[in-house]
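Re: Re: token formats

Sure, here are both.
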Amino acid sequence: MLDLKSVNPFKLPFFLITEKASLPNCSSIYFVLDGDEVIYIGRSSNLKKRWGNHHKLKEIHPECRIAWAEVSDLC
């Protein structure tokens, strides 16, 4: 299981929020990063679908990025 205390979200793979169509179809814990600040942490069984359906980009700066850690299961 992923130990969130040991995860550095700034060293994870990421895409800019404007590139959300490139996100992988995987179970993950994800982080929305704005500069050097984590502004949101979430989890999803399908990261690409989650961002395609549920997040409103107008509320998030276009230079923000989505970083993720793939997980095998979400409880």
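Second one below.
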Amino acid sequence: MNCPLTHAPSYYAATVNEVTNFAPLRGAQQAEVCIIGAGFTGISTALHLVERGYKVHVVEANKVGWGASGRNGGQLIGGISGEKKIAQHHGRDVEELFGKLRWAGHDIVRERVETYGIQCDLKSGYLDVAIQKRHMRDIQADFERLQNAEFPYEVRILSREETCETIGTDAYIGALLNMRNGHLHPLNLCIGEANAAVSRGATIFEQSPVLRIDKGARPQVVTSDGVVSADAVVIAGNAYHFIEPELRGNLFPVNSFIVATEPLEERIVQKINPRDLAVCDPNFVLEYFRLSADKRLLFGGRFNYFGDDPAVIRKHHRKKLSRLYPKLADIGIDYAWGGTIGVPINRVPQLGRISNNVFYSQGYSGHGVNVTHLAGRIMADALAGTMEQFDLFADVPPFVVPGAHTFRRSMVSLGMLYYQIKDRL
């Protein structure tokens, strides 16, 4: 079972390079910036800031990477959800605004892995797979967009036969191969970046749930045993943030679940994924999978469940996995876990502020590994006074659902049903 202050019982937690043990917040502390949340958004923001010389404290309720940052599918995917809506809002061309920005998070991740020697199993290679003909039309459009932009990485459309040959299943009618995208061990990346931030002067406090933010000229972040006074505060809790009521209705917490099989024999690996690609389908109620560094199949997807019982997750995902790979129907499943992602109604990442010096960043709709790293840079820029990219997102008003926090389970269940029907059309 998932307990407070410990990581979910995931493959990532079982294979982490290092278990963090930062002290809880005690007494009165001072900083230029206090960040709430030690996931990708918070840690990325902290590292960007300390690299610029800021004094930064990070306050985390549980452990570094405890939430979705340390539990996700580990897929490094280009693109920003809601980018068309953002461009329309500003009356700008979407390619002009986001052509390079879509890949900025990739560059940040790769630079940090190299600069700080972070061991996180970073690999290149990704397949967008198609289930219906409309998906192939979208793939064709994406391919042409990349070609027109003179994309400097291998990208090509695969036929049904080529897709089957590449990933050993006939479940898809085609795919887009993109060697700019990839996959990694997200918890090791998050902890590696946290250690990098500490090495540059940041302070991280774990096991320190925030009770409130006292706003003012110099806001205070208050826990049961301590307080941080800072020039500015960044809220980076995403779907796990419940402190500020005005943020609660801005996004829906959607659960996603993953299983990790026992290590596969090499002959099986060569049949189902010899190029070691990450794979994702285009549905909202999607499925995604890849191989781990030790050749387990990590298979994930969303379904209408709000618990964390590994037996329930195993049972559900085994059926899905068996449909893709019938020969793996009886494969051993060693790990099963879940986590929560933040999905805004309009799918636009939410960067903004609730007062002059209290900022927030949340709502990445499943593209978090890439976009959180970009968001960290944008938040650092905004705190330093450069608001251009921050305002791209902040100027787009969120679609707020009254009562969404109170009735979120019922509303998420209805939303899942709606998208399941829409996915089939």
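The chain has 14 helices and 17 strands. The longest helix spans residues 408-424.
- S.
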